[in-house]
Amino acid sequence: MMKKVLTIAVCSLLLMAGCKGKDQKTQDKDNAKTEQTSVPRPDNEAIAQMVKNMYEDIGKSITNMTETDFNEKYGSTDWKNTVKAVNEHDSKIDEMGFFEADPWIMGQDAGDFSASDIEVGEVDKQNGTPVTLNLHNMGSVTKVRVIVVMDKGEWKVDNLIDLTNDFDWKQSMKEYLKK
Description:
By secondary structure, the protein is of the alpha+beta class.
């Protein structure tokens, strides 16, 4: 009998030590906290910050950086290859080429440039993640969708879509190249 009581006491102590003396409700809460902290940070925050930083950088450097610089710094490999193909095509013609405006600023000139109301859509590493924002340039506001993709371990811009004027830059470049 004494052996049985001693065994129960030891088991109870081991059980209490495993729970650190906490009741089941408290233990469940602690387990939930551990699960929450082990979940990776959503990419939405990283994507929103990247787009915010990108447009702040473009706004600061608009006078001393060119469209080519923006393509190199922020563009995905596919975006850069598409732009390169358009520029090569345009170098062989005598008339005005495809780029009558800068896709990064949604215009020919820039002044008082900024982005606001940045909203990241559902993160889709396969097809690109949409980021919608308002682009302020020289007193006008253009609603823009930026498609970002993971490219060589970094979030990069794969397309720029002018929602205000219904103009998909990448799709239009690809159609232009087919002509």
